[in-house]
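=== RUN LOG ===
request id: a7f3
mode: sequence -> structure
chains: 1
length: 114
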Amino acid sequence: MGSKRIKRKGRESESGAIIDLTHLLGDGPLRRDLLLEYLHAIQDAYGCLSIKHLVALAEIIQIPQVEVYEIATFYAYFDIVGETGEQPPITTVRICDSLTCWMHGGENLLKSVE
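=== RESULT ===
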C-alpha cells in the first residue's frame, strides 16, 4: 500500500499569514489544547482575527479550519474580520444581554450607554 496524500479542505493559507503567526506564536510545535490562547494572542496583537490568520492557524496546528472558526465565533470577545480586511472600531463596548444580566439591570445599562 502506498501512502496517500491528504488534501485539506477549505481555503489555502497565505504565506504572509503563516509568517505573521510564526513570529507571534513562535516556530515550535503548537498544541491544539492551546487554541483559545493563540486566538487571544492574535486578537491582542492585531486588534482582530482575520480570516487569513484563522486559516493559517488551522494549518499550523493541523486542525480543520472549521474548528478554529467555531471557537473564534463562539466567544463574543473576538472581532473577526472578513475578506475585506476592514478593521473593527478601536473601542468596542460589549454589554451582556443574557437573561441573568437583564435581571440585574443590563437593560438599564444598555439604555444609558445608547
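=== NOTES ===
The CA atoms of residues 25 and 38 lie 7 Å apart.
DSSP finds six helices and two strands in the chain.
=== END ===
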